[in-house]
Amino acid sequence: MTQPRHLLSITDLGAEGIQDVMRLTDSFVEVSERAIPKVPALRGKTVVSLFFEDSTRTRLSFETAAKRLSADTMNFSVSTSSVKKGESLRDTVETIEAMGVDAMVVRHSGAGVPWQVAAWSRGSSVINAGDGWHEHPTQALLDCYTIRQQRQSLEGLRIAIVGDIRHSRVARSDVLAFSALGASVTLVAPPTLLPPSLAGWPAEVSHDLDEVAPKCDVVYLLRLQRERMQEALLPSLREYTATYGLTRARARLLKDDALIMHPGPVNRGVEIAAEVADRPNSVITRQVANGVAVRMAVLFLLIGSGVDLAVH
Ligand code: NCD
After folding, report:
1. How many independent structural domains does the chain possess?
2. Same domain, 127 and 153
3. Do 168 and 259 share a domain, yes or no?
4. Which of 10, 78, 139, 183 lies 20 to 30 A from 260 at CA?
5. Which atom of ligand 1 is nearest to the CA of 168?
6. Does any domain span residue 1?
7. Does residue 167's CB lie within 6 angstroms of at least one atom of ligand 1?
8. What is the CATH number of the domain that holds 298?
9. Host H or E run for residue 302
């Protein structure tokens, strides 16, 4: 495949690009299982994480991925930076680029910020690690990879994405990726937690999890993103859990081999019962583990030397 410069939206890759990343990920999963999980593929390259929003797994996962490829890493955190002294985003980006970086991994509460950073960047690659309510392409890649690992292919699978779709960048990128790979997706949420328009969302909608649960091969739960809710969108948390939570009782409706997924962070007892999150068919920690290998593949694809791209 041709070497893309940035990864901003999952649509940048298309179905073939997603498949290419998954094949490349296979070899990095193998690297991650070695006694010394490190290869020299990005020696001499520098990857900087520019996180303007909180993160546990995405930030650590990119950092681990870069280190396993022998890249140097820099970490930018708003709370200890000159952003606190009023420095603009553009000046921050230009300052960091002036130090000679190869990739910038950007997370920001504003939708579209990674596109803006890409427009300013002189030579480095930009990876969107989550922009507002908009997109989170590497999460979609690791979710596709996790399902493929368990089921060989996404073709023909029925996937339910349940919960706070409205504020979820994960939901948007996942719907686009899952449907590109041939799965059919149903969004299950109360009307107040759906986007105002579903134009451009290749998915069906349901408000009845009990009806959808027995039919799905994968049930993907989302956290209520209360930090993004400006008004009361739910009557009560308890009612939400009773209607849309994957409670123990509701989990009995699932097929025996249905996969349970969640991007994390999990609010146990709200969108999913603690015990259900720990069942054998819950692949939540597998998603995290695969996140490292998928991000190795993405970094390698964007800033690895072109000739090596054929090495699978
Ligand atoms: C998500 C995010 O930040 O978009 N988490 C993640 O990256 N794994 C989802 C969330 O915050 O609920």
Report:
1. 2
2. no
3. yes
4. 10
5. 4
6. no
7. no
8. 3.40.50.1370
9. helix 284-303
> pLDDT tier at 306 (50, 70, 90 boundaries)?
low
Q: Write the CA distances from 154 to 86, 157, 178, 185, 305, integer angstroms.
A: 46, 6, 7, 11, 30
Mutational test site, ligand 1, from 136, 162, 285, max ligand atoms within 8 Å of CB: 136
- Tell me the C-alpha distance between 312 and 310, whole Å: 6
Quick check: CB of 304 below 6 Å from ligand 1?
Answer: no
Determine if ligand 1 sits within 6 Å of the CB of residue 262: no
Tokens 């409205």: give the residue. Answer: 166
Ligand 1 nearest-atom number relative to CA 170: 4
The pTM is what? 0.95
Distance from C-alpha of 189 to C-alpha of 174, rounded to nearest angstrom: 16
* d(CA 171, ligand 1 centre) in Å: 10
Distance 305 CA to ligand 1 centre (A): 31
Residue 296 and residue 267 in one domain: no
Of 285, 203, 275, nearest in space to 246 by CA = 275
Residue with CA closest to ligand 1 atom 7: 58
Residues in contact with 225: Cβ distance below 8 Å, sequence separation at least 6, in sequence order: 164, 167, 168
Residues 128 and 264 both lie in one domain: no
Percent above pLDDT 70 for the chain: 97
Given pLDDT bands bounded at 50, 70 and 90, which one contains residue 2? confident
Please tell me the distance between residue 310's alpha carbon and the centre of ligand 1 in angstroms. Answer: 32
Ligand 1 within 6 A of CB of 136: yes
Q: What distance in Å separates the CA atoms of residue 101 and residue 298, rounded to the nearest whole number?
A: 16
Which pair of structure tokens corresponds to residue 88? Answer: 């603009």
